[in-house]
Amino acid sequence: MKIRPTCDLIWETVMNESAPPAEAPATEEAATGSTAVNRWMRTISVVFVVAIIAVVVLWFVGGRTIYYHAQVRILAPPAKVYPYLTDPDLLKQWMGDVAAITPLDDKGDEVGAKSTVLVDSNGEKLEMVSEIVEITPDKSLKVRLTCDMFVVVSDYQLSESQGATELSLDMAADFHGLARITAPLISSAIQEKLEADFHRLRDDVESAK
């Protein structure tokens, strides 16, 4: 039997101990990377599904008629308040963002009378057609506003109490197209605007005495 020299054995042992550790199998690294990717893809999928569900819910909710209400007491008789609901120049004073109201016929304040209403909100312009649906001077006015995104019916009621006017507005809005998705999200902002407009109307009427 051949015996290896002692120095050869020592040298081989030293080389084996100083050699770098073997790299982890490629399959283990690939498995770890694959797990991270799968987890990320699942997260994206969940977010996507939730977003789709939210859009669908908003679409159906926005497809229903949305109702708004505002009310104010004005220290002036109905005969003093009513022109602010029909006169274009007076309307622009208290209706926020209304830039122009242009009659489309010569019917004046009669049922069927139409006007174009131009709204300019921070540079975003929207044109609507306004039509008088019902009218009883100094008592009530119902107007329909129409555009591609919605149809809104505004019902104003005036009643006198101790020389003052109780003015109420019931508004029904039906949204169309993409506006159906955004309608539920902006409902509170619309309500706040109606109330702010009514407060401005009150101030305008009372200061005009």
UniProtKB/TrEMBL annotation:
Transmembrane segments: 40-61
Domain of life from the UniProt record: Bacteria
Database matches in InterPro entries: Polyketide_cyclase/dehydratase, START-like_dom_sf
Lineage: Bacteria, Pseudomonadati, Planctomycetota, Planctomycetia, Pirellulales
Keywords assigned: Membrane, Transmembrane, Transmembrane helix
Protein name per Swiss-Prot or TrEMBL: SRPBCC family protein
Keyword Iron applies: no
Organism: Blastopirellula marina
Pfam family, one: Polyketide_cyc2
Keyword Transmembrane helix recorded: yes
